């Protein structure tokens, strides 16, 4: 049965251009077992393609007859070709992480084929240290970043000797519970009008806040080099940090892991813009996604997130002062969301993101004042070791998207005792993106000192 896309999900399709592909992805590193045979990776590839059918949402493609996907629905692809979606690749020698990140940068810059299900997965061999990698990308209309991460990780084993079907194998559909029936239409309409009224009031109240307040909303960000037009070229950088170090810094300053993560981002952005001699006097504002679904709802597909704006305190020299501003700004966000019902938040999300979609579609983004400066995400991940067809997962790095006017994205995913940072940007708009990895470390060291 065809499933109509929500307004938010259709928006990602409407915004897509050659310069702004709208997919999110993940780069996962695995350790080849010590007793693996010489053809081990060929066996892994066969495991990925020799499947018993294809499950949702991997077998769904877009069907639309009106322009701008205004009537877009998900339908099953009756001519699904697994060899198109799952690909086997290899790194050039010497197979360093540097070559791996360069390959992912190129793969992530390429658009997905809109006539097929909107995902691809690459098995990448030749990585030094007896390792291999798996890079998977999915369109944002198919899943949000949190749901995509949950979906892939929930289909990995927790023991080396456990064998589960490939994440897209049709056998996963057999284990899904039946869908719940819809709500009463009349009651839903009345409640919807009330939610629109309340959510509009929240937006108006936010826009009335003083510009120099730590309470941020859209259009309270200075225009910087991050907020220019982008090309289709991408540069991806990734690195892991000890979760223990970050927890210790959080305890020392009476904050949370997320506070320290945002402070690392604020410090790194301050350093980066100083090297370009373009640090604004006003603080940068981050658009921070907040998940509205639980891990067991990831298979439902679509997007279930809202967006909030947080000050990064980049105008402040002292790291403690930047952290305090971030904490104040985040506390105000949590207080406001706590006063809203889930349905109100859904309407609020549509209202605050509509200008973003319109800016991308009309070509105004990157030419007018930005709604915010960049997107920064923190995605909670698994706390136990995971395995993919017997291979231990070593690290999992998020690969997100950039837009016209928003040329940089920083996302972090937790895994066991690490935080895995993924930084992606337009390589033509922002030079030397890889320097952010050094700036993150310097910013964390400041808070530890």
UniProtKB/TrEMBL annotation:
Pathway: Lipid metabolism; Glycerolipid metabolism; triacylglycerol biosynthesis. InterPro entries: Acyl_transf_WS/DGAT (IPR014292), O-acyltransferase_WSD1-like (IPR045034), O-acyltransferase_WSD1_C (IPR009721), O-acyltransferase_WSD1_N (IPR004255). It comes from Alcanivorax hongdengensis A-11-3. Gene3D superfamilies: Nonribosomal peptide synthetase, condensation domain (3.30.559.30). It is an enzyme of class 2 (transferase). Its EC number is 2.3.1.20. This is diacylglycerol O-acyltransferase. Residues 5-260 form the O-acyltransferase WSD1-like N-terminal domain.
